[in-house]
């Protein structure tokens, strides 16, 4: 796979040479690199950290001490991750071959317009994880094909493990109590998907907050949004949560997705408060399944790509992205579909992405087992769902990589780091000329 095939042109990114740096031409060899250790956390939730099972550290955690005040020895992250990933009290469904540790190389730069965050990591697999689940025709109807590796159908061998690689960063500007010391563990709780004491449909249906915000499951949230921070069911009112948001009491969550954002040179933009929310506007990806007919909405344009669908033997042989304005046409139910035909379950679009949700851009390439991702984030954003990055600012950040066809807790994560734009920090962004 050639690097040039994955680079997104400036025209697609919407960056003019006179306005900002060309991220593809930044001399990263002159930008200092910091290696951030990532480790597999399993089900080490906010609640678990505050129990006696977190041996010898309950008092310190409740007091608000930093994770690294205890885990400060060399290779601490590697030791923790490699122990948890094997299985046991924090990993009830171990994934065969899953790595417990990953070294993330981080570089940062900025100019008058943008912040440029460059990440590199080795993938567990000898191919880029740039595919997501599909819709597969079984001869009668279209059904979802492929699931993340933590799901029981994959672990039982009934389904194939398919999920996109992701690179995520959480950003706090000092307005979220506790984040500077305990980072993303403030957002991961019992009751969430694939965590301990996972929610039931009845619990969600009977929960006032989730019904008010029209959600059907439990995802990341910050403790301040609950009357009991350790119980997701005790949500505060929508009005109280709106006040927290207005005061900046949320964390930014930027996610680069190898299948659902990378094909159009973007990263999705969200935030964590009472839920893991998307920013206002419209994301660059959406479901390709018709809610009424369960058929795909779009299929590949055979006149442009040479096929209208693929089969399982073609997986991981190229870039099977369905881009609405580039290679897709409306689905034709009478196109002679055969059992085993597959079409992506998601359709992506740069043209459809709107509003605050469309702020962030990216370029990426995969070569010799390494992803290189450059996120481009505008400085000075004033949206009420974004953290405003600016020259001289220092921010608390947490990183995560989802690799090897997995999602939810199956990632590797970092302890909290700081990033400074022309200011002293763990990761210092360099001002571009």
TrEMBL record:
It holds the Pfam family EB_dh. Residues 1-20 form the signal peptide. Residues 25-414 form the Cytochrome c-552/DMSO reductase-like haem-binding domain. InterPro entries: Cyt-c552/DMSO_Rdtase_haem-bd (IPR019020). This is Ethylbenzene dehydrogenase-related protein. CDD domains: DOMON_like_cytochrome. It comes from the Bacteria. Keywords: Electron transport, Heme, Iron, Metal-binding, Signal, Transport.
